[in-house]
Design a protein that fits this description.
The structure holds 2 protein chains of 2 kinds. Chain A has one domain. The longest helix of chain A has 27 residues. In chain A, the strands form 2 sheets. Chain A has a two-stranded antiparallel sheet. In chain A, a hairpin with a 2-residue loop joins strand 2 and strand 3. Chain A is of the alpha+beta class. By secondary structure, chain B is of the alpha/beta class. Chain B has 7 helices and 15 strands. In chain B, the strands form 4 sheets. In chain B, strands 3-2-1-6-10-8 form a 6-stranded mixed β-sheet, sandwiched between helices. In chain B, strands 7-15-11-9 form a 4-stranded mixed β-sheet. In chain B, a hairpin with a 2-residue loop joins strand 13 and strand 14. In chain B, helix 4 crosses helix 5 and helix 4 packs across helix 6. Chain B starts with a strand and ends with a helix. Classes of the chains: A alpha+beta, B alpha/beta. The interface between A and B is medium-sized, with 27 and 30 residues.
């Protein structure tokens, strides 16, 4: 189906706000990873908190509120990589979206 | 340890659920690399089909359920536990459009059983969450369920069977209309009963189920069989006039609530 024609014939307008909301929704699950017996959200807060410590192991609540003893450095590296990679993709799509204005 | 998906599809006078299941199964194979077992009835099986399911299980369906558009054969979902040949199973509605490998993540954190508890409507991201009734629980969704063959998962499916068989009783307690049996409602109650009338965070898929809802249509951007780009168009009613609005989506799974739209998409 030629959706470009369809949009033009229907005189449809691009809904920027809905597209932004969709992007947020799309990337929500991509920042999550299950590792070390827990489910973790690769967000700024968790990465910062893990960085505050220097111990080999620490006990941390995962995103479901379960306390888990983790290999701190290993988890930090996993979350940093996931955050960086996913944010790169998110930023790329966000830029494309902003260019549609 | 085996892993696979299971689909339930029983043709109704209006819709060919078998062909929807075949389409969804191909996408499950492609994006999730999982084998697919189909639960259906003899009447729904076509004389010839090019696609080969991992297994086909035929059962006698309960046709005693109706929606505004006709007979809706959606009962018997509790049999998924017994009929699944896999240790780890993804149970999906046939009108769920798989466009990514996202659902594989559910196997990483699912202990016994997990499903969605929140939804997001494309073009209506702030729409209220559905509840069984004003005074009852928010709905859990049976559209995507991941489970393992454990005692607790078995209890949940046994409870689902009990609720299906006593749906009117539970409708009276929770003040919803029992006229149409809904797997979502039965699942909401079953999981709560098994969990001691609460929900456990581990049973919930930690992202929203994306729905294509009312006044919204979806079109494929190309005819590739494994296309993942779609245009979503919405009729926005303002001051008695319709204003068409659209967005483009890519690599995102979604559930199509309107079967007519799904049928158009898979043509």
């Amino acid at each position: 189906m030629d959706t470009k024609n369809l949009i033009s014939e229907a005189k449809a307008r691009f809904n920027h706000k809905a597209a932004q909301d969709y992007l947020r929704e799309k990337y929500k699950n991509r920042f999550q990873v299950a590792t070390q017996q827990g489910l973790w959200f690769a967000d700024e807060q968790t990465i910062n908190f893990l960085s505050l410590f220097s111990t080999k192991k620490m006990i941390l609540k995962d995103s479901q509120g379960t306390p888990i003893e983790v290999e701190r450095k290993e988890l930090l590296d996993t979350l940093k990589k996931l955050y960086t990679d996913t944010m790169k993709e998110y930023y790329q799509e966000w830029k494309e979206l902003e260019a549609k204005r | 340890m085996t892993r696979g998906a299971i689909l339930f599809a029983f043709n109704s006078p209006k819709y060919n659920y078998y062909s929807m299941a075949e389409y969804t199964a191909k996408r499950i194979n492609h994006f999730l690399d999982l084998p697919v077992t189909l639960v259906t009835d003899k009447e729904s099986l076509p004389a010839k089909s090019k696609y080969k399911f991992d297994e086909i299980v035929t059962v006698e369906p309960d046709k005693n359920n109706k929606r505004d558009w006709g007979i809706w054969i959606n009962k018997g979902r509790y049999q998924a536990y017994e009929l699944s040949p896999y240790h780890e199973t993804l149970l999906l509605d046939v009108d769920y459009m798989v466009n990514s490998n996202t659902l594989l993540k559910t196997f990483d954190f699912c202990v016994d059983f997990c499903c969605h508890d929140t939804t997001s409507f494309l073009m209506h991201p702030t729409a209220a969450q559905e509840a069984l009734s004003v005074y009852s629980y928010n709905t859990l969704w049976a559209t995507v369920v991941t489970f393992r063959k454990t005692k607790r998962a078995q209890q949940i499916f046994n409870c689902l069977e009990m609720i299906q068989k006593n749906f009117t009783h539970y409708a009276n307690i929770h003040n919803f209309i029992a006229g149409t049996y809904r797997n979502d409602y039965a699942l909401t109650l079953a999981l709560r009963i098994v969990n001691g009338h609460t929900t456990l965070p581990g049973d919930i898929i930690p992202w929203n189920l994306i729905h294509v809802g009312r006044n919204t249509n979806v079109y494929r951007d190309n005819d590739d069989p494994f296309n993942t780009s779609f245009t979503v168009m919405f009729d926005n009613w303002k001051k008695g006039k319709i204003r068409k609005e659209y967005i483009n989506i890519k690599d995102t799974d979604f559930h199509v609530m309107n079967k007519d739209i799904f049928v158009e998409l898979i043509k």
